């Protein structure tokens, strides 16, 4: 299930895009969702990069569509 609300967070929110390096300026899931991010997932347990959450940024979503 993708994360859209701060209430769903189990870790401090830090975000990066699955395709590019966008996302570090996003401070909450609400802010990211409002900016057009989708598919935000908790990846903290996977030790992925420095971000606890991985998503699809608006620019990359546009390219996928
Ligand atoms: Zn991206």
Structure report:
It is built from two helices and three strands. By secondary structure, the chain is an alpha+beta fold. A three-stranded mixed beta sheet has the order 1-3-2. It is globular, with a radius of gyration of 11 Å. The chain has helices spanning 29-34, 58-64, and strands spanning 15-17, 38-42, 53-56.
What are the SSEs and their pairings?
Blueprint: E1 15-17, H1 29-34, E2 38-42, E3 53-56, H2 58-64
Parallel strand pairs: 1-3
Antiparallel strand pairs: 2-3
This protein binds zinc ion (ZN).
Distinctive features:
globular, single chain, three-stranded mixed beta sheet, 2 helices, alpha+beta, about 60 residues, binds zinc ion
Number of DSSP-assigned strands: 3
Unreliable stretches (pLDDT < 50, length at least 5) are: none
What does the radius of gyration come to?
11 Å
Instruction: Give the bound compounds.
Output: zinc ion
Which H/E pattern describes the elements?
EHEEH
Strand order of the largest sheet: 1-3-2
Question: Span between N and C termini?
Answer: 20 Å
SS content category = alpha+beta
What helical percentage do the residues reach?
10-25%
Output mean pLDDT. 93
- Report the sheet-strand fraction: 15-25%
User: How many alpha or pi helices?
Assistant: 2
Q: Rough shape? A: globular
**Largest sheet, described in full?**
3 strands, mixed
Would you kindly provide a brief summary of this structure?
The chain is of the alpha+beta class. The chain has helices at 29-34, 58-64; strands spanning 15-17, 38-42, 53-56. The protein has two helices and three strands.
């Amino acid at each position: 299930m993708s994360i859209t609300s701060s209430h769903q967070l189990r870790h401090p929110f830090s975000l990066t895009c699955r395709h590019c390096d966008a996302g570090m300026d996003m401070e909450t899931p609400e802010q990211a969702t409002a900016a057009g991010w989708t598919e935000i997932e908790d990846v903290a347990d996977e030790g992925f990069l420095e971000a606890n959450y991985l998503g699809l940024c608006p620019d990359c979503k546009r390219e996928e569509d």
